[in-house]
Every structure is written in C-alpha cells, then in structure tokens.
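Q&A log
Question type: sequence-to-structure
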Amino acid sequence: MSNNGKIFLGIVTAAAAGAVIGLLFAPDKGSETRGKMKKQVNDAADEILKAIQKGKITLEDLKGQATTKATELRDKARTKFENFQAHAEEAADSAKKKVNEQLG
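Response status: OK
Response body:
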C-alpha cells in the first residue's frame, strides 16, 4: 500500500472511531444516531475528496488534521468514560447503601 493509501486509511479509521464514540454517548435513538453519523462521515469524505481534487489541501495536511482530530476524539471519549464511570460508581454505592439499610 502506498503512503497516500495509508494516510487515507488512517483518516477513514479516525472518522470511524469518532462515529463509534458518538454512538456510545449519543442521546438519540440508535437508528437516528447511526443515520446522522453515516451522513456526517459521508459528507466529510466528500469534502476531503473535493479539496484534494481542487488541490486545496495535501495529504500531509490531511494527515496532520486526522492526527489532531483523533487525539481530540480520544481525549473526549476518555473524559466521557471517566465521568460515566464516576457516576456509575456513585450509583452503585448508593444502591449498596440502600440495600444494606433495608437489610438492617
């Protein structure tokens, strides 16, 4: 695979990772969220291809942008997961306390 192919594959992978993260934390119904994500990924891919064809961006630009976006998405997902985990632990502790109170 050429370097250009590897870069494009990296961009697609980052977009897919973002879509998965979005699905995990989306407030909408699953089917609605999947539809939105699919449209966003398709729109982004179309814009990237148009920009490359017009020579407005290079693959190196895309590589840098994809790396930055992937890092942002990873950090955002980590923060959301940590918040979810903290709330889950609080809920579990609260439930445990209530059960213990009921049992005496």
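Response note: The chain has one domain: 3-75.
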